[in-house]
Amino acid sequence: xIFRYMIMLMLLQINGGAVxxxxxxxxxxxxxxxxxxxxxxxxxxxNGKAILIVNTASFCGFTRQYADLQDLWQRYQDQGLxxxxxxxxxxxxxxxxxxxxxxxxxxxxxNVNFPMTEKTNVKGSTAHPFYKWATTELGLVxxxxxxxxxxxxxxxxxxxxxxxxxxxPVAGRVIKAVEATLPH
Length: 184
What we know:
This protein has about 180 residues and is α+β, with helices and mostly antiparallel strands. It contains five helices and six strands. The protein has a single domain, classed as 3-Layer(aba) Sandwich (Glutaredoxin).
């Protein structure tokens, strides 16, 4: 009887510990990526700014969205928008390059100068914790299903909205959501 009680107590502690660690995540600012140059990039660095996080790929039919992301960045960065590109090879092997190759490609072809992360998994069991959290917060309908999926984060780190791959970063509904999310 005592043995059974101890096992139940241990299971409760293990389960309680898992719940406790999950509840520590309160916002997107609790996550850290690595920059494309390999440095730590805590999203808390962008506290007080809106963030558009986009998983990208260099050899995708939607790669032209880099130009629109750069346009959006140039248009709103002085008003408090961060565009964060997250290269990923998760969909169709369309980001096979190294970080150096990815950065060179983006700069040479689209004049990209917004921040980018190192190549990162965005789906499945190996997905970056941010992507797991976003899917949990917004539901399975909002998980990335292809390259150039977009998450909009409020200045205090909450998920404001998401936009599917075919939605251009400069589409009217994205612009409207960005403008509503910018710090005032």
